[in-house]
Amino acid sequence: MSTLVALARAQAVAAGRAQLIATVRHLHVHDRPLILIPLAMAGEANAPLAAMLGTAADEPRLLVVAQPRNRDERFAFAAELAGHLLPYLESKARVAEPITVDRGRDVRYRFIDAPQVWVPNSGGVDFLKLFGRSTRFRRTDGDNPVPTSIPLLGRWLTFLAGTAEVPGASLLLNAVQALSLHWATGQSAAEDARLGSLLAWIESGAAAAREAELGPVAGPATDPDFDNRVLAPLIESSDPTLPDVLREVMTPVWEQMWRALALLRTLPPGARVATRWDGDRDAYSAFVQYLEEDGAPQPRHDGAVAAAARLQRLENAAARYAVQRAFDDPLVMAEYRLTGAAFGGVVTQATADRIDDTGKRPVLRPRIMVAASEPVRIEPGAVLSSPARPSQKAKVISVSGEDVVLELSGGMGRKLVAEPGSVPSVGEKVLYTTLSEAYRPGGSFPDPAATPWTHGGPPEVLSAG
Asked: Could you report the per-residue pLDDT of 406-415, keeping only the tens digit for each?
């Protein structure tokens, strides 16, 4: 927990109301998302009990497994879930747009839209991941065949669960995490994991949150007491009222999900949210193409090289997402200013036409002096960037008290005269930071066949004798 989030939590306790910790929304909220609330029996490993899903607040669909321990009924549930979920997921793969690549020398195509699925909490993401694993390898022929939609559903769920691990991705989102990214409450992180309580803190305050603690759980596991008192007798007797009971339990959570989306929509999207959504559309387009060309189920486990490459991609995505959030949001950037990784101030001097001719050819290197509004803990020689001009670099020449001299490079055009507005002018408020949006190249990994046998490569062949 950062210092400013801890302060916001303390203020929430004092005010009895959740506090905003963001000025913009840091994720994409689709105009027509699909809400999916999975429910499983407590104590049963990924045994589905019910699901409520839909794309309209007034049209929830309830799917129920009357006997969760019955294999045939579980697969019937999976087929019914696929019948509702797959049409939505595939509906975005219709219209594509050309995207130029390789500096305009080639063109690829990307769908103009992508699906977005919301679950209540991280447990819902885990449930879909496990359900995808249990269905994507099922055979559609031979002994105990299943409909073709079931393994296809499993591959889609595995894909969505994989994207949920990527920081900043918005194809599969959970409401608890999304709300906690933008509001701080006066309760613990464990209590925030309960959607009803978290939502009550934001909408009404602490008193309402205490009452919400007694409300229905958002799954995926049911309350053990509810299982013993209500659920078990209904299942054992095959009581036909089971769907009605489950609907009564899940409807409040369904309503909470739509209220959560409405809250998030009150915040304007960050400037870089659209770029990350473009990346989501890229991932969606690539997966659709994969299904069309091959469609083999994803492996149970990554090999050593694939796992290392994926880990690096996730680390790069996390670093890039942290920088983008800070560049989009002054409240997030304030944490970096507090730790000395950024400072703000006003330009007091600017030499926009300065030329450095000490090298082989003259280059444009303007210098500015900034009167910092806070202590500067950055040493001379450091290279900084500004959210207002992310393609421009600023090298720290000197720091004297509150005055910081910076030398600028890049983002000013290709001539020896800076383009208008590319160099900060006197009196302009600026912010500079050690954070950077610069591209992070991927690592160099060996071919899987070249890795040692301890990491999945071929076993070493011993010579005779």
From this structure: 999 999 988 8
